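so ive been stuck on this for like two days lol. basically i have the seq below and the ligand is flavin mononucleotide, smiles is in there too. i just want the complex predicted, nothing fancy, no docking runs or whatever. if the output looks off dont worry ill sanity check it later, just need somthing to start from for the group meeting slides
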Amino acid sequence: MSGTTVPAFLEARRSIRAFAPDPVDRATLDALVEAACIAPAPHHSRPWRFVVVDTPAAKGDLAFAMGERWRDDLRDDGVTDDRIDELVAASYRKIVEAPAIVVGCLTWDGLDRYADEHRQRAEWGMALLSLGCALENLMLAAADDGLASCWVAAPIFCPEVARDALALDAEWLPHAMLLIGHPDPAYIGRTRPPVPLAALRAFR
Ligand SMILES: Cc1cc2nc3c(=O)[nH]c(=O)nc-3n(C[C@H](O)[C@H](O)[C@H](O)COP(=O)(O)O)c2cc1C
């Protein structure tokens, strides 16, 4: 890349939060996960695992468990019961109505272990950065395929709850999820704001 133009394939990826009801076939979902799995990762590890959730039962279990956990957090924040019901119901709908969900998990597999807390935390942080790279790969591949995607943060607030709702191995800790589907043609996303480069970068 030279000059100031952002490549079109990067521009093409947007968060799309409404989907046509059509399912996404599993071969396509596998291809997207494969794209995620060629992401850069610390010391040639693959510390991520991906769980494709595309059955109504598993979507419902995940949405319900995370919703109940969120309900507790909102209650602790002093949010009113009516508002809590509204928020949790909207979150439930968003998850169960997505044609497919890819849950991004982290494991310690391939990561270095340190005796001290600060390097151990940095190692986990590197894995988390790498999961972000993997999920960006997946979203770019989806956009390239004409599919819509949207990152949903919820699992990072309750990794164990999401893990247990999906009956995953104890080592697989969900940290993010992507909703995937064919885009709803009626969906109008936000206009992407211009990049205020001067405020966001520095040269030294
Ligand atoms: C770590 C992360 C967490 C996000 N969590 C949510 C979320 O919980 N719900 C949601 O609708 N969008 C979520 N998003 C999507 C952002 O809102 C979106 O990327 C941002 O507004 C920029 O829009 P664009 O993706 O269309 O360029 C998240 C994105 C990232 C990277």
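The chain has one domain: 14-180. The longest strand covers residues 173-181.
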